[in-house]
Design brief:
About 20% of the residues lie in helices and about 40% in strands. It has 2 helices and 6 strands, in the order βαβαββββ. A hairpin with a 4-residue loop joins β4 (about 60-65) and β5. It is elongated, with a radius of gyration of 15 Å.
């Protein structure tokens, strides 16, 4: 798989923002990727050294919300929690272009 298609977006939640103090960054990744591809994509995109990658499947969720009982859906996907080597950090606004 092409490394530019591996990382879909960073996950910005309260829990993932708290984990960034421990050099752990969370990304949504393509459904067919593995740990090695995620590691290479993060290292090439942000120019940092990756120590560990954990992948978590995000299951599909359907639920009824409100009085009109509207159906909301969450699609299937994967999250990758990337632990960086010491003295490395990621600024999501700066992506290495070459």
């Amino acid at each position: 798989m092409d490394l530019s298609n591996v990382l879909l977006s960073p996950v910005v939640t309260e829990k993932s923002s708290t984990a960034q103090t421990g050099r752990k960054y969370t990304f949504l990744v393509h459904l067919n990727t593995n740990k090695v591809e995620v590691q290479k994509a993060v290292e090439s995109a942000y120019g940092v050294k990756v120590q560990q990658v954990n992948i978590i499947p995000v299951l599909k969720k359907v639920r009824l919300v409100g009085r009109g009982r509207a159906i909301t859906k969450r699609s299937t996907g994967k999250k990758a929690i990337v632990t960086l080597a010491p003295k490395n950090n990621i600024d999501f606004n700066k992506i290495k272009t070459s």
